[in-house]
Amino acid sequence: MIAVRNLSKSFITDRGKIEVLKEVDLDIRAGERIAVVGASGAGKTTLMHLLGGLDRPTSGSVHFAEKNIFHYSAQELDAFRNRSVGFVFQFHPLLPEFTALENVMMPALIGRSSAKEAGKKASEVLTAVGLQHRLDHKPGQLSGGEQQRVAIARSLVMSPKLLLADEPTGNLDSTTSDGILALLDHLHAERDLTIVVVTHSEKVAGRMDHIVRMTDGYLES
Fold first, then answer.
1. 136 in helix, strand or coil?
2. How many CA atoms lie within 13 A of 113 on its CB side?
3. Mean pLDDT of 135-145
4. Average pLDDT in the 194-201 region?
5. What is the pLDDT of residues 153-189, one digit of tens each?
6. Is residue 19 part of a domain?
7. Is residue 199 part of a domain?
8. Does the pLDDT at position 202 exceed 90?
9. Which residues pair with 213 in a beta bridge?
10. Counting beta carbons within 10 angstroms of the beta carbon of residue 79, is it exposed (0 to 12), middle (13 to 18) or buried (19 or more)?
11. CATH of the domain at 105
12. Does the residue 1 lie in any domain?
């Protein structure tokens, strides 16, 4: 499903060039769950951003369904992210003034679904994550675990094939984390998702099918 080849990313600073990612090669099969582990600053989040087209590499390629996503124009890359990739972050950027339903509708509205269709999709996916009774609640009225479920629902409302999660349980207590991980297991099986998780947690990594480790910008499988 995904083929990463010779992927590198560097930044120019006042102190010179900083190489964050160095000639990474990685193959990810459809339906596979991969954990990316490593110390802070090893390049894990940069790799995830490149996999999802949130940033462009200095060199190398990411082929998704045999197409190099970095050959897309900016508009095409935006459309690719909207329809094919779901993102979950440690600190969910939910919009506080909107309800759970309205937050989850956003990607569908951006993808030019009608308000009626977006609402239907959002309601269905919120039900799938167990929040059918919280549709009209705003983020401030929800627990941390419920807020993360809303974020997961939002990431899935466009039925993406790939879910990228950066420390999805990093700011949750152990009981809530277990619930989120169980939910991801369920959604993986139900939707045949391909999942890439960036994590410091050995517990989270151990639930994945395969673990790869990043060290100083290099990937070790």
1. coil
2. 19
3. 94
4. 92
5. 999 999 999 999 998 888 788 888 899 899 899 999 9
6. no
7. yes
8. no
9. 37, 220
10. middle
11. 3.40.50.300
12. no
114 located within any domain: yes
Between CA 117 and CA 101 the distance in angstroms is 12
Number of structural domains in the chain = 1
pLDDT tens across 144-153, in order? Answer: 899 999 999 9
Tell me which H or E stretch contains 146.
helix 144-156
Instruction: Give the closest residue to 135 by CA, choosing from 145, 124, 123.
Output: 123
* CA angle centred on 27, ends 205 and 60, rounded to 5°: 115
Q: Is 140 helix (H, G, I), strand (E, B) or coil?
A: helix
Kindly report the average pLDDT of the chain as a whole number: 92
Residue 116 has pLDDT above 90, yes or no: yes
**What is the residue range of 88's domain?**
32-49+72-209
Q: Which amino acid is at 26?
A: L
Phi-psi region of 38 (alpha: psi -120 to 50; beta: other; left: phi over 0): left
d(CA 218, CA 70): 21
pLDDT value at residue 221: 65
Alpha-carbon distance 72 to 84, whole Å? 14
